[in-house]
Amino acid sequence: MPLTLTPVLDIPYIHAGDDLAEIILRAFERNKIELLDGDIVVVAQKIVSKAEGRLVDLKSITPSARAIELAEPTQKDARLVEIILRESNGVLRIRPGTIIVEHRQGFVCASAGVDHSNVGKAGWAPDDTTEAEDWVLLLPEDSDASALALRQRLEQASGARLGVLIIDSHGRAWRLGTVGVAIGVSGLTGLADLRGQPDLFGYQLRITQVGVADELAAAASLVMGQAAEGTPVVHVRGFPYPLREASLRELLRPKNEDLFR
User: Fold this and answer.
1) What is the pLDDT of residues 8-39, one digit of tens each?
2) Torsion angle (degrees, nearest 10) of CA 182, 187, 190, 194
3) SS3 per residue for 66-131
4) What is the mean pLDDT of residues 223-235?
5) Which pLDDT band, with edges at 50, 70 and 90, does 247 fall under?
6) How far apart, in whole angstroms, are the C-alpha atoms of residue 183 and residue 205?
7) Region of residue 124 (phi > 0: left; psi between -120 and 50: alpha; otherwise: beta)
8) 147: helix, coil or strand?
9) Which secondary structure element, helix H or strand E, spans residue 40, and what is its range?
């Protein structure tokens, strides 16, 4: 079966408290896409966070001494730094304009995923931009749990065995540019272990493990786009790995194997 990624159009602007599963199901109906066994629904982190009410007003934040200390060398608002610290297990690197942290969910990223883009005041529509710069959006509290909850609702409604992937845009240590990566995984393979399998010439693979959830996240990110983010849901059919229970944890490199720490 060929791998197909189809944008799910007409997703409305998401507000805190919205029933995201119901919104996605209705969008599938409007797009005339029937969910079948083995399908995967890829969802942009931003709409998950908005539905979960993960918006924060910077005016409500009082920075700690540590946040004030880091604000100067990073050239960032101390209130924003405070939020980043609250969302992090620890700070790994800093430079002007950048704070690299280990997020509370275990992955390494810039600014703990705290984002200004496409964010307005809670409950506002995109054209209401007054004081929008004072609002930021945090990642879901537990992206795996968010993916699981969404998958359960979609499976219950459709009767199909599905996978759900929540994705975000992250930078990489060795390359320029952001790419889509998985931050929440439910019902599909995160890491495919090919060790012990033969290659084309019969050589037994000894090292190869493939981050298939991240590969799918990158492909879906191309379909979604990166700027206006008007297509935050992608339907996937023909994923070349069996669906199974999994979590983000299997994609995270252990600290003792991380040469960058």
Assistant:
1) 999 999 999 999 999 999 999 999 999 999 99
2) -160
3) HHHHHHHHHCCCHHHHHHHHHCEEEEEEEECCEEEEEECCCCEEEHHHCECCCCCCCCCCCCCCCC
4) 81
5) very high
6) 28
7) beta
8) helix
9) strand 40-44
Tokens describing residue 34: 């029937």
In the chain, what are the domains?
Answer: 1-52+140-245 (3.30.1330.100), 55-138 (3.90.1660.10)
In 112-216, DSSP assigns E strands to: 135-137, 163-170, 179-186, 192-193, 209-210
Tell me how far the alpha carbon of residue 250 is from its chain's centroid. Answer: 15
Structural tokens at position 52: 């979960």
What's the alpha-carbon Rg for the chain, to the nearest Å?
19
Q: Is the confidence at residue 128, as pLDDT, over 80? A: no
Candidates 170, 162, 157; CA nearest to 45 is 170
Dihedral (CA of 10, 14, 19, 20) sign: positive
| Distant-in-sequence, close-in-space partners of 61: CB < 8 Å, separation ≥ 6 | 79, 82, 83
This prediction has a pTM of 0.90
Residue 124: which pLDDT band, with cuts at 50, 70 and 90? Answer: low
- The values of phi and psi at residue 165, to 5°, are -125, 125
